[in-house]
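Key idea: predict the complex, not the pieces.
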Amino acid sequence: MITVSFNLNGKDVSCTVDAKEVLVDTLRERFRLTGTKKGCGTGDCGACTVLLDGEAVRSCILLTAMVEGRKVTTIEGVGTMDHPHIVQQAFVDASAVQCGFCTPGMVLTAIALLNRNPNPTEDEIRTALSGNLCRCTGYQKIIKAVQLAAERMREGR
Amino acid sequence: MNKTKYVGQRLPRTDSLAKATGAARYTGDIWVNRRDILYAKALFPPYGHARIKSIDTSEAEAIEGVAAVMVADDLPGMNGYGGMVPDKPVIAKDEVLYEGDPVALVAAETKEIAEKAVKLIKVEYEPLPGYDDPVKMLDPSSPMLHTDNPFHKNHNISDEQIIKKGDVEKAFREADVVIDNWYKTPLVDHAYMEPDAAIAEYDPIQGGITIWSPQHAVQLAKRAMSDAFGLPQSRIHVISQLVGGGFGGKEDSTFDVSVVAGVLSIKTHRPVYFELTRDEVFKGTGKRHPSIIHHQLAARKDGKILGIKVETIIDKGAYKSIDAIPSRTTQYAGGPYSIDNALTHSWSVFTDHPYGCAFRGLGSPQAHFAMECQMDELARKLDMDPVELRLKNILRDGDTTIWGQPMMEERGLGLEECIRRVTSDPKFNEPLDNSDPRIRRGRGIACFMYGTGTGSATDGAHVMVQAQPDGSINIGVSASELGQGFLIAMKQIAADTMGVTIDKIYLDYADSAASLESGATVASRTTVLTGNAIINGLEKLKERFSAVAAPMLKTGKENVCFYQNMVFAKGLENEGIKLTAVIAKAFASQVPLGAIGSWYPPMATPKGDGLGDKMHTYAFGCEGVQVAVDMETGEITVEDALLACDIGKAINPDTLEGQFEGGMAQAIGWALMEEHFMSDGKMKNHTFHDFLIPTAKDIPDLRTIIVEHPNALGPFGAKGAGEPPIVPGAPAIRNAVYDAIGIGLNEIPMTPVRVMEALRKKSAENADKSRR
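Result:
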């Protein structure tokens, strides 16, 4: 067992975990942050995406021990139902949510993209989201949501 | 009917924000937040077909923290469950018939303990030959898969269906051309993002059980699992949490997990959580049935189709599940065309594969794939325009289907409009860029029809409606929110029917204790059947409230109108009274505030030979696609896709487009990449990196056209819309590839390997011809 200290959604936290424990289990089962979903456990589907120092990573193939001293942001850390993030609101407004299981991961991947590239082309959006699988939407309205969010962020709304 | 304010509007879904912020809770999220729940694991066999010689659970049982280990002999009830017949064992006893048959179950205090314990169970197997080929299994001389299952006595045939119409032999004799081809479609997973999970909690007060799980059908679940639990159906309470994608699959797979959690909970009297890993989801849960189709089509030289003969062999897998596929493949074998003579014959055949279950379209995609490929083959043979050929044959008002059902414009017949709107689309008519010899581009179309509802005698919906004294309305419906947006659509229908603002409508949904049987959330049936039942229930309330309001308004009850929480006499909108005042008076005078709403489609009497009306209405559509084929790698890119679909009436165009786009994308996956490989009953690819589904990079801009030819029996004219959009995609892509490279590929998925094989075969044939 090892003790890991990191910043989680703006707060310094620490926990003692088995060296083999992956971050998605730590977030869900220890911190009860269930907005992070577990879809495959093999790093393929992207449902478990979180931000690690602002970059989108798959928490199901990241050992918790690896986040020592780093900054982890989950879907709960970017916005709430009362104060949603611009990207979360854009997903609602663009009707980009169906079953919703991929949505938190999609939102976080989109936030990471827009932070490094505020004006992405459609192709850049598709490339950025290509590690996040969605079976419901055909991605059509998700792409529109990211474009809408980009527009609103550029306008400072 | 009141003025409509909400139906037809693009209202935001009620569940979006909760899902986008992570606040929405799925089944696995409840487990995380409840610390009294045992964690379950199942031991699955390392074989697709094997005899169980012995099981030793002693080491697993000895571990501290293990609450129960169960083998077949420990079950509380019958060792079987299922949506249609209880033919699937909860725990395999003597033999495993596929990789998803559990051999033993464990429940433990923690996940870690359960995982450790399940590995300590020792099983001695005798591997048996794997039955992979449904064609061989159909042969009467083949060995039986089910040697001792009371539900399966007809050799290896799970179901067999035939439609016979007219005189097929005569049609083929009189035909100018006969098109005769074989088609093949793959075994594919639904690939919903949420792995299957269930919580079961024993009820010590009345000796019942409550199940939380992502269900398609909370009422059917009671019937499907009652024998296995050894409990009366009334004691099983099922709540469907939000469903993280289902597409038909969770209609069955949720029973697989619920029954395991349930028997462990009954045994331990503790709440139990059971979830599948993705690997277990791939190997164990239901799939889209693979099919092998022999399609013969007879036509006159002017393009008129005279008859079809179609044989379809369907790989059923190991258990029956929802076995409507023979029925649907015989029904849709002739596509949306008027054909006087037909003989269509389908068999679903047992193998050692994952069971085939409902998957968006339920056999219709397979049947239409063959038929719509045949239409392009016929067009080529006759040198006719494929669009003209289709327009010449489509079902019109007064025509009958191959199953003898007359088509009526009053139930919505928008196929011609769909075809014209796709084929006249400016982008779909732009010149193709074929300047680079390596990249060949082409276009293709495909048409389809798809019925609303199951077409069975039990297909109906019953709901509870209840007005509250504050003017808000509860509606108890058993349907589930799968992501399709049924909550907002039902609210739109209910608010307009009752004449209240939409915030007054609250749905008590997907809870077997708060609803009546309104059928499974499948078969593109919820908007129409449940929507109509809600209308029926609310109209009953309005009738009562009209009688109460009439003297208050000094008018006759037939003149009472309801709109935006106000009640007024016809034409006197400004002199209304509040609905709450009417409800208060009704409440005080013992007028019941609750009612049951019911609706079922007109029942048809089967006429023999598979003939007779099936569904009361059908969605129609046409998809046009443009593809680019890389002649050096065999890779196919879908560059444009345009779907026009007649769904009667768009209750909410936003969620409807979501169904269109999702179906189109799934069709691209089915046509180009998805395929499970089986050998000796073992699945060779069972991760998302070797079973590929489309990513955002594989899908083009998906363009959609909503066509509305109202269904006179539908709520506000609606027809079912959930499944139809997947149906035309694969044949449209195949026909576009044909246009691009001049080769008709009759097997999907059209992977680079299959495309390169076909290209090489063709160039060898050409070389051969030029040598001669």
